[in-house]
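User: Okay, second chain of the day. Same drill as before: sequence in, structure tokens out.
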Amino acid sequence: MTDNNQIRRKSSVVVDISVAIFIIAGVMGTIWLYSGQPFPGSPPLVVIETGSMMHDDAPFGRIGTIDPGDIVIAKAIHSKDDVITCGGNFSGARFVGTDGYKRYGGYGDVIIYRPLGRKDQVPIIHRAMCWVEYDEKNKTYTVKEYGIYNATSVTIPELDLYNVKFNHSGFITKGDHNPLCDQHPMLGNEICPEPVKLEWVIGKAEGELPWFGSLKLLFEHMRDPVHHPLEVPQDSWICLSISIAILVIIPLSLDIRDYLREKRGIALPERWIDKIGKDSKIRKKVLKKVMIIYWIAFVPSLILLYLFSFMIIILVFIILANLYTASLILEDGRRWNTDKSKLWALFACFTGPIALTLYYSKIKNQEV
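Assistant: Same drill. Structure tokens below.
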């Protein structure tokens, strides 16, 4: 009996590792496709390093704002119209929809760009305040968001800009926590002295995984504390620690339980996946329950993802559930010699509960 338990434990480890690799590859592939970034090319995930986008009134855990240690998806943009600027009294995010267009605690989109287009500098992630259109022929500026047309210089009191002249068109950007915009003359070359050209933009922030980027920042800080100061808020560390503890404790406790049972000579209980491989009634009952539970969880998840699209964690959960459904169909097909189960599993990776429903409808009236 002990030999059988050891064989099952080794087999379980191999399966767990394979599933983990498959899940990681699936999640990263889906995120890359969602971001629209070229492959190979700019990575779709960006770790926030500084507190320039922090909000002092953010709730505990800081979900919904961009803080040091957060991981953000950089979704590719193809024109300036893909970015909704914060704007002013004449146009911009405040004029979009009933309550305006808000992202990460403020009006307008947040963009990730390379200062002056330089690839040797760390990208900046700040809010797009407005678009400055420069007429090189007439040497005039137009900023529609602030009612400026064909002016010989840019004056925007709201951004503390007075009689400023730029050399080309682009976005004026600003960190929510910073007192001055990136292009303010007082900053000189500290951030980005010129408006952000479209080709400098890596993408706009479109999804957030809070806290987990803090580990990368910690390692960088340990290697070079002078050039990599650690600005992660304390509550983010607390939430990260709790999240990691939950992720580690649950599978560890199950493994410890099985180990103790094995040491006592107790046979490991038969897994439900083994049961559905023996009894057609149990098989259909389990598939039906999984299908119902998935639909109950899937529909609210889609609604939440629509309402809070910046919450990348919801998308990750949906992807993981789809992959689990695919593995369930593969295992069922292997145990019951179901034709084309691999195609059904592939279909489930992208459609989840739809594929499982169709698969269950196909096999529920079959007699094996």
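The mean pLDDT is 82.

User: Thanks, on to the next one.
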